[in-house]
Amino acid sequence: MRQQKTRRPEPTKRNEHGTKAAKSLTGRAVIGINEPILRLAQTRTDYEGAFSLLQRRYEESGLAGVSNASMRVMPYHLSDRSQVIVATSLRRVVGTLTLVRGAERSEFPISKTHPEVFESLQGQIDQVAEVCSLAIDTLPSASTGEMFGQLTRIMMFHARRSGIEDLVAVVNPRHVRFYERAMGFDVIGEPRPCEHVSDHLGIAIRGAVNAPSRYRKRWRKFYFEGDFSPTELAAKPMTGPDRDYFRTHLVSPPPPPARRRAG
Q1: What would the pLDDT profile of 6-31 be if each residue is shown by its tens digit?
Q2: What is the pTM (predicted TM-score) of this model?
Q3: Residue 32, by phi and psi: left (phi above 0), alpha (psi -120 to 50) or beta?
Q4: Which CATH superfamily is domain 37-247 in?
Q5: Which parts of the sequence belong to the N-acyl amino acid synthase FeeM catalytic core domain (predicted)?
C-alpha cells in the first residue's frame, strides 16, 4: 500500500513587522506584504507618520485651515494614557486614530464640545475612553471602509485589554448611522460646532466595549474574535523625549473672537 504524504500546514503569513497578518471585514486573511498592517504606535516614526497624515487629510477635507504646519499634534496626543493606532503600507502610515484616556478634563476633546456629557461620565472616567483623530489615506489595495474597520477592530481589542468599558466620540453627523447600526452606539449629544475642526458639526455618541449583543450580528465575530497577542495589545505610551519633541509641534489654539467696541 502506498503511504500517503502528510500535508504540512501552511505557515502563518507574517507582515513587515513579523506579526500576523490582519483579517479583512469578510474574515479573509490579508495577503501581500504591501497590504495595510495595523499596530499600536510606539516609535517617533509612527507618530510623525500619524500626525502628518492627520494634518494633510484635515486640510484636504476642510477640517483644518491650510497652514505651514507639517503635523497636527493635539494636547491629548501627549498624554501618557493616550494610545495612537496606525495602519502602515510600505512603511508609510496610511491610517490612524487615537484612543484618549485621562484623569484631567482637558485631556478629553468631548469636554469642550459637549461639557454636560463629560460631566455625566465623571464617576466612570477610569473606564471610559474617547475615540478621536481619525484619518485614512486613499489606497488602491483597501477601501476607506475596510481601513476604518481594521483600525477600530484593533482599537476595541486594546480597549478591552486596558479595562475600558465604554467609548465616546464626537463624529461627523454622516457617520453616526454606521456606529449605531454596526457597533450599537447611542447618540448622547446634539450636533454642535466643533472649534478644533473649523466649526464643523459633531454629534456625541457612546458605545459599550464588552457587549456583543449590541453589535450587528455580521460584525460580532470581527470585533470580538481575534488572535492578537498580549504584547500586540499592551499599551505603548509615548516616551518622555518624544513628548518633548512633539510638544514643539502642538496646534496653536484659535484666537479669541474680537470684541465689538461699544458706541
Answers
A1: 344 333 344 444 444 444 443 433 33
A2: 0.82
A3: left
A4: Gcn5-related N-acetyltransferase (GNAT) (3.40.630.30)
A5: 50-198
